[in-house]
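Hi support team,

I've been running sequence recovery on a batch of backbones for a student project. Most finish fine, but this one hangs at about 90% for roughly twenty minutes before it completes. I'm not sure whether the input is malformed or the queue is just slow. I've pasted the structure tokens below so you can try to reproduce it. Let me know if you need the job ID as well.

Thanks,
M.K.
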């Protein structure tokens, strides 16, 4: 079982930056690809960014390419989402998630583990 705890959300003006963190439990973090999703009010949850378990490959939604960066620190059992040039349309609850161990990002896997989410609000 993998427990995921997000932090770092908040209120920021358009053009600003935030860094989200997702801390995990256990000593097996390095086996899991990790991803960030978001869900805005009235909208479906959508994939934002992902990184493979070995950190070699990353993937981004078109809407965040060039603005967001996903990274991981296996020594700290933590995955990060650096969000720059934020826009009001980035407002959402952000979730981190993990599929089963050693699962690639493509084809899109089933994500088995989810955090509770952290709110990001971007004001115009």
């Amino acid at each position: 079982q993998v427990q995921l705890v997000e932090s770092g959300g908040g209120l920021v003006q358009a053009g600003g930056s935030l860094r989200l963190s997702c801390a995990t439990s256990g000593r097996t973090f390095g086996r899991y690809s990790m991803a960030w999703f978001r869900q805005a009010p009235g909208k479906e949850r959508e994939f934002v960014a992902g990184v493979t378990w070995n950190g070699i490959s990353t993937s981004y939604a078109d809407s965040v390419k060039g603005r967001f960066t996903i990274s991981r620190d296996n020594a700290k059992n933590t995955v990060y989402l650096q969000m720059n040039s934020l826009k009001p349309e980035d407002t959402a609850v952000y979730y981190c998630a993990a599929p089963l161990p050693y699962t690639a990002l493509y084809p899109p896997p089933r994500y088995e583990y989810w955090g509770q989410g952290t709110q990001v609000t971007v004001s115009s």
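--
Follow-up from support: It reproduced on our side and the slowdown came from queue contention, not your input. The CA atoms of residues 56 and 71 lie 10 Å apart. No action needed from you.
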